[in-house]
Amino acid sequence: MYRFLLTRQWVILTLIGLVLIPVMIELGFWQLHRHERRVAHNAKIGRALDAPPVPAERLTAPGRDVPDSAVYRRVTARGSYDPRHEVVVRRRTNADDEVGFHVLTPFVLDNGKVLLVNRGWIPADGPQTAFPKIPAPARGAVTVTGRLMADETSAASGIKDVRGLPDRQIMLISSGQQAHALGKEVLGGYIEQTSPQPDDGSPQLLGAPDHSGIGAHMAYAVQWWLFAAGVPAGWIVLVRREVKDRRAAAAKTESEPAEETAPATA
């Protein structure tokens, strides 16, 4: 009754099932690992945001990348803004998904080194080719606080670093590029300013990253594993159905009366 399993159709079906089971199990573990990375990333952001601020030069230096463990860490710096060499970062959105610019202002430390400060978002009221009107930063010596961020790259952000832009406009924030443009020592990375608050609310300070969501990766992992478990269960159901149909067909054949052959007449 089970010899049909050796037919080409059933051999192919069985082989497909045997391939799908480990593939689906592996896809489930892939989603599980993505869930674990997301949870660890959220925890890292939370620890960085909750930690007390430290001087920026403890965590970064000219020509160095910001270590992953220091990203989002609150830092402070003492110095003065240099609005003459201010640039804007194109095609950035605010919390309401309005397109505008991020304002990137060099902040000259007391020792002469430069820290790049993202002072926040302003709307793109005029043509994209014109340099926007930017509220002036605080004058004189001030202490600035912000979240330390790594240099932006096209690979990490998906933003193409377009060349030939209008004067004082950039696509990506790069301490290396700004060090070349300024001719000064620039600390690696930049900070998203959190204080002091602008007097008139402009530029709009950037909000802290949302580190509460974990996504649906765990649900997807369970889903893949259920699919893997469903393959052998489905195979068994199909086999039992085939056996049932074959038995019914055999019983029907046996119950049919044999046709009598009429005798030939002389």
UniProtKB/TrEMBL annotation:
<feature type="transmembrane region" description="Helical">
    <location>
        <begin position="12"/>
        <end position="32"/>
    </location>
</feature>
<keyword id="KW-0472">Membrane</keyword>
<keyword id="KW-0812">Transmembrane</keyword>
<feature type="region of interest" description="Disordered">
    <location>
        <begin position="247"/>
        <end position="266"/>
    </location>
</feature>
<dbReference type="Pfam" id="PF02104">
    <property type="entry name" value="SURF1"/>
</dbReference>
<dbReference type="InterPro" id="IPR002994">
    <property type="entry name" value="Surf1/Shy1"/>
</dbReference>
<dbReference type="InterPro" id="IPR045214">
    <property type="entry name" value="Surf1/Surf4"/>
</dbReference>
<protein>
    <recommendedName>
        <fullName>SURF1-like protein</fullName>
    </recommendedName>
</protein>
<comment type="similarity">
    <text>Belongs to the SURF1 family.</text>
</comment>
<keyword id="KW-1133">Transmembrane helix</keyword>
<dbReference type="GO" id="GO:0005886">
    <property type="term" value="C:plasma membrane"/>
</dbReference>
<keyword id="KW-1003">Cell membrane</keyword>
